[in-house]
Amino acid sequence: MPSPARKIIHVDMDAFYASVEQRDDPSLRGKPVVVAWRGARSVVCAASYEARKFGVRSAMPAVRAERLCPQAIFVPPDFSRYKAVSRQVREIFARHTDLIEPLSLDEAYLDVTLGRNGLPSATATAEAIRAAIREETRLTASAGVAPNKFLAKIASDWRKPDGLFVIRPHQVLAFLEPLAVGRLPGVGKVMEARLAELGIATVGDLRRLAVQELEQRFGRWGRRLHELALGIDEHPVQPDRPTLQVSAEDTFEHDLALHELAPHIQRLAEKTWAAHQREASGPHARVARTVVLKLKTSDFQTLTRSLTPPSRPGSASELAEIACALRERVGRPADERYRLVGVGLSGFVDADGFMAQDDLFAGSAFN
């Protein structure tokens, strides 16, 4: 059983981008809103609950969303507004704990084991957070309270939208017993099918399989499955997780040849460099050493090429120059067409220790 001492809350804003649009434009309230650009290459960023009734979901091609819900109102995303609201919500979290692990603009884990403000329980804290979000942002959030992160995340989805669900330590095994194994983190369609071949459909079925057999079949992942089936997850909430990569990418209206990508790479390099500069400022500044070029072919194959130069890029133009040069390392037929290009920076190190790291990162490497 997981340790009852840990108290974790997972907060998930309800249909976040779409809800912000409905809040700011009263004419959209109660209507099926799809946050996406129209077009054959666009994907859905978010869908209001009115649109979800028709089967519209995030990451779905926009043209499919339009077929499912012809009356949908398409609104282009405005990430600057969404980020501003996200900062408001984070400020509310910070009133209750310093242990905040953001997962995206609209969700986060909070460890409230040692909560503030004298609230009597994690449940009371979750209620206070949801109430403050409603009052200060005029939006709703769902929350899950549990002894660990993976259970809290499952719980936050249990009573969406605008709901709260609590899994207490003594309820963990009974709660998990009937759940489909696909609800466990890391169990996708392929793993679910492999488990089904063993007669495992629910967490209860999984729990009855010996850990030794799971390890024999799935290696270390088999032991992890065994632990999840018992509700065990010792991963702590990790505040201020260091950035691994900053990047920007774009999907084209029409597929392009490799030699046509330079202006797009230059534009994306400017966006990526601006994000890098935000990382490189402040008391915990970090700088990146590795340039990454990402490409997606017309048949949806993803390619990445990277270079760690002897001297890190010093400007957006230098970043663009290196990323453009990486095209020479793609090694694909000259007539290959590409639907997407991305430019990224990775290999972050502390700025203060940058000179000390120089020897470590000397030379270059291609993937």
Mean pLDDT: 88
- Under CATH, the topology of the domain at 245-357 can be stated as Dna Ligase, domain 1
Quote the distance from N terminus to C terminus. Answer: 43 Å
Share of helical residues:
25-40%
The major beta sheet can be summarized as: 5 strands, mixed
Tell me how many strands there are.
12
CA gyration radius, whole angstroms: 23 Å
Low-confidence stretches: 353-367
| Strand adjacency order, main sheet | 5-6-1-7-8
CATH class of the domain at 245-357: Alpha Beta
* CATH H-level homologous superfamily name of the domain at 245-357: DNA polymerase, Y-family, little finger domain
Outline, from the CA principal axes?
Answer: globular
SS strand fraction: 15-25%
Structural class based on helices, strands and sheet pairing: alpha+beta
Which CATH architecture of the domain at 245-357 would you pick?
A: 2-Layer Sandwich
How would you classify the quaternary structure? single chain
What is the H/E string? EHEEHHEHEEHEHEHHHHHEHEEHEH
In DSSP terms, counting alpha (H) and pi (I) runs of 4 or more, how many helices? 14
